[in-house]
Amino acid sequence: MSKGKILVVDDEEDILELVRYNLEKEGFRVTTSVSGETAVRTAREEAYDLMILDLMLPGIDGLEVARTLKSEAKTRHLPILMLTAKGEEADVVTGLELGADDYVTKPFSPRILLARVRAILRRKTDIAAEKSPVVERGELTINIPKHMVHAKGEEVRLTYTEFEILTLLARRPGWVFTRTQIVDAIRGAHYAVTERSVDVQIAGLRKKLGALDDYIETVRGVGYRFTEAV
């Protein structure tokens, strides 16, 4: 039985075949595309569970593909996993802020790619958990209505901003949030705050979490995420 339909977009034939082989081996149905133009057209014509998208494409590049699909009602909710080259941190940030879900840097391990694919597809089925008033991750508990956090059973007193950041990250473990996304989510797009301010809030939050400070991971050059290891 198929585990889902995935559209893979890359102009490098060896990468395309590597990804296709490993996905089909895991039971996924795979469609491939070698250009941004055909990728957009294919995504519009048929529903997919996930798109794996190389950012460096001839013609319409990956960022433009993501921008186009995320702006259209029919394809807005299509999860996107970006394939990027080293040194493309700025493009990764842009892609995440356009609505992409995650990224893998080339060269990549097929096992890492499959783990990211599974994680994204698992998130799609976990919408109800995002609405839960209590978030439990490992030894951390967040009671949203009561605005209370407990780490290893001990209450942790957080500021409003620290609480909102922690809740945002913990609701979606494994998701990478850029600093801009964090600011937009907790204060609104017009709140006057710098990226440095987010870093300061994260540092304070980690200090208060004590032994659980590693629950919040830094993604260098991109932003932050809550660990999937708990």
Task: Please supply descriptive tags for the structure shown above.
single chain, alpha/beta, Rossmann fold, Arc Repressor Mutant, subunit A, 4-stranded antiparallel β-sheet, 9 helices, 12 strands, 42% helix, 21% strand
Percent range for β-strand residues: 15-25%
CATH topology of the largest domain: Rossmann fold
Backbone shape: elongated
Describe the largest sheet: 5 strands, parallel
What is the strand arrangement across the widest sheet?
Answer: 2-1-3-4-5
In terms of structural class, how would the helical and strand content be classed? alpha/beta
Quickly describe the structure:
With 230 residues, this protein is α/β, with parallel strands linked by helices. It has helices spanning 13-25, 36-45, 62-70, 89-98, 110-124, 127-130, 160-171, 179-187, 195-209; strands spanning 5-9, 29-33, 50-54, 80-84, 102-105, 134-137, 140-143, 148-151, 154-156, 177-178, 216-219, 223-226.
Overview of the molecule:
The chain has 230 residues and is α/β, with parallel strands linked by helices. The chain folds into two domains: 5-124, Rossmann fold; 127-226, Winged helix-like DNA-binding domain superfamily/Winged helix DNA-binding domain (Arc Repressor Mutant, subunit A, Orthogonal Bundle), CATH 1.10.10. 42% of the residues lie in helices and 21% in strands. It has nine helices and twelve strands. The strands form three sheets. It has a five-stranded parallel beta sheet with strand order 2-1-3-4-5, sandwiched between helices. The protein has a four-stranded antiparallel beta sheet with strand order 6-7-8-9, with helices on one face. Strand 8 (148-151) and strand 9 (154-156) form a beta hairpin. The longest helix has 15 residues, at 110-124. The model has no long low-confidence stretch (mean pLDDT 90).
